[in-house]
Structures are given as structure tokens and as C-alpha cells.
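#structure-requests
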Amino acid sequence: MGTTATQVQAVVFDLLYTLVHPGTYPAGTGRVGWLAEMLGVDPAALDRRWADFEPVLESGRATAGADGLGPELTWVRAAAADLGVAVSAEGLARIDADWDLTRRTALLDPPPSNLSVLIALRDRGIRLGVLSNTHPGEMRAWARSPLASLVDVVAFSHDIGVCKPDTAAYAHVLQRLGVPAAQAAYVGDGSSDELVGARAAGFGLVVLAEEAPARLAAGDLTRLRAQADASVASLADLVALIDEPTNPSHQAAGVDGDPGPGWALAHYALGKEETRLLSGPGLLERERTRELLLRHLPAAPARVADIGAGAGAHSLWLAELGYDVVARDLVPLHVEQLAAAAERLGLTIDAGVADARGLDLPTAAFDVALVLGPLYHLAERDGRNRCLQEAARVVRPGGVVAVAAISRWAVLADGILLNRIGEGIPGFAAVLDAAMETGLLEPLQAAGFSAFCHRPDQLREEVAAAGLSEVALFAIEGPGAYLADLEERWATPASRETVLDVARRLETVPEMLGMGPHLLLIATRQ
């Protein structure tokens, strides 16, 4: 191994069968088998033609048709004609629609554990790149993938005009990352002789990702291991390989098998959070959260750390009131949205990407820490403990820590009764039973919402375990959040005030604490 763990400043990943694992087409075939069936031609004959064409396509040298067809469909039409089949415009359109099916599915729903690995590496200040032999048609979904916002540089061979294992491909991505090869690691499944190319390009650490061994012929795994400095059975093992074990800040932000952050990244990449509090139950949640906060926050210009700030709903509001706001969020898209909104409004907010379990903020530097979201997306108790300990760390003695949680019973009242989640989904009863017993509601579909849902006393216990003293525990919205006509009532001042009055009257009633969607616990650091 040429590079020690502490020297790694960048990690370059292969994409396909390393970060994501494409499946097969519905008939259980790969792309050529699927295409042969669509065209009604001999798969072996088509495969021979594809083997000749694919390197041209991946290197960006394939040309589009004079009639505007892209290079892939131009080849399909020519290959089919060569095999005695004429393809209609409608047939080409059907082929085009599913050309990237397996890649699209994999890109839009990457393994949550791999997203967590990227987050952990980013938390350590390590720059991330993707280098992949691809062609335009199979990467159409990349911009919508949760992976896209987590890497600093992406280099697809068809864009840069050179394929792995040519050392020029590796040099291209390293130059854009601004890191010398000797202080970079390359991680891939070993296809296209990529590990040999990475070593020739001078990477200090070359790692074989062994998560897809079924794709390998007998003996290939032994050969590939010999080409690498190290191998990992799971990308989660990569963090330990690169990490410096004695660094406590790294340990605080480490990957611990918690799937919650990965699920959250996939969900929030859809971009819906920016407007969530502007309609429906979000209207009541926003108003009541602000009302409760103002009862307990010190006067502006107190310094506020908004941890898990989302797209900035509360950061922007507090900055407008004159507070000195620093905002951190796990989701790069949220940070971009927050920063853009602050610029539009002429506000100064220090916004950045960070994991709530290992913040880049100084100790005892804030008057207030808001934790209005991170606990939703930490499935493991240890992760929630670290998040609350970090919030306690960054506030001064006597400072305020405001912690929000989703109520355990919101799954029933909001999810089942109001939004009818799970209807028609086989096996949902087991998912619901698990959520009621453990508090963990897993996503029901790719990029679906997931959450850890607290009982009121469970939230109290976790906050106390972090060394914080409870001041008050509130039900934020109360049952008003479940009104089907809430938006209509909200539009009329008198009706809106009635909804708010009910929430205030019930906010600390012990029997009602868990009946609304959200809890808010106000605490102080001793």
C-alpha cells in the first residue's frame, strides 16, 4: 500500500457495480438480451455487434444520426437492418424509453449504506469523485440520483473522451479534484482493468469493492485482489480503511450501520422540503414551532446553531428577526436552497453540509441549538445520543437546546388515517407492527419517507442522557394537524386562531402529548 490512511485526501469511485448495482430487465436479461427480444433477432449476433460498438460509444466517438437520433438508437437501427429487421419510429421510441431502465432504477435508489459512506467521507473533508465508463443514454437519470449531490467531481467516459484503464481518464478526474494521485484512493469492482489503470496512474491506495462477486468468473476474484492494495466486502468497511482510528472527531461522525441518513438523503433529494411548511399541516407546524421557540429563545442578536436546518425555514426567519444564525444540514440540496434564499433576502447565514452526529462547530459558541429534524432520521439510539451530545457541546452553559421529534402515534393518525399510507402494499402490516413496537418506520418505496418516531418519555430520556435539563415538553400541532380542511380554515383569521387555540390548550396535557405529529422539547445545558 503506497498511501497511509491519514494521507488520503480524495476518493475516486467507480459507479456501476460499486456505488450502485443495476439489476436485469424484466425477462431476466441484460441490455443486449432485452434488445434482441425487442428486435426479434439472434442475441449472439447482436452481442457481437454490440461488443464492437460499445467502446466507440463509451469513448464519446459515436455519432448521432442525420435525422436527430442519438448514437445509441442510430446503432440500433443500423444493427437491426444488418440483421434483416426494419425498426419503426414507434419501435425506436419504445427502445429509447427503457434503454436506461436498469441503470435508472439503480441510480434513483442507491443502497442507503453507500450514501452513508459518502457522507462519512465528506465529513472528514475528503473530496469525492466518480469515474465511470458509460455512454449518454444510460446516464440520463444521474442528475436525479441522490449520489449526484454528494460527489465533487463526476467524469463519465463519453463526456471526457477517454475510458478506463487509460491513465488519462484518472488524470482528468484527479486534476479536477485538485489532489495528487499519491494522496488519493481509487475504489472499484475491477471491471475494465480499472484497478490496473489506477495503479498505473499512481493512486496511493487501490481498493477492490467485492460487493458483486456473482458477476465474476471462477478465479477472477483472486486475480482482482492481487491487483489491489486492499479489498472490502462492503463499502462501509472503506471508512475504517481510510480513517485514522485515533481521531475522535472521525469516530463521532463514523458510519455505524444506521440506515436512517441514507434513507433521508434519498428522500430529500426529491426537493420537496423547501415548500413542505407552506401548505397543509406544514402551516400549523411552522406557526406553532416558531411560537414555542420565541417563548424560550434569548433575545436577538443571540447566536443560533440550526442543526438539521433543511432548506432554511427557521434559519431564514430567525435571521430576519436579527439572530446570528449558523445552519448545518446533511443534504447538500438543502444547503444550496438555504444559501440561495438567504442571498435573495439579503441575509447573512453561515450555511454548510454536516452530519449532526459530528459537527464542524466550536464548543460552547452558541446561545441556542435547534435540533428540529435530525432525530427523525437516526434509526439507532447511539446516533441520536451523539446528535444530542453534539448539540449540548456547541451551546454555552445555560444555553437553550430545542429538540423536535416525530410522535410514535403519528404513524397511525397522520400516516394511516389521514394519508392512507401502506394501502395495497403487501406486507405493510408487518412494517406497521415494527414501527409501533420499535419506533422505526422504514421507507415503503424508493426514496420514500422514513422516520424514527418517539414516545414522549423516550424523548425525555434521550435528552437527559445527553446531559441536558428539560424545561418543557410540548405537542407542537396537536390533533389540528389531522383536519382535512386545515388549509381552508387557515385562510380565515378567526378559524386559524381557533386551530391555534386548541393546540395551545392541549400542548402540555400529558394524555395528549403524543397525539399530534410532532413533539418539541426545550432543554438547557448545565
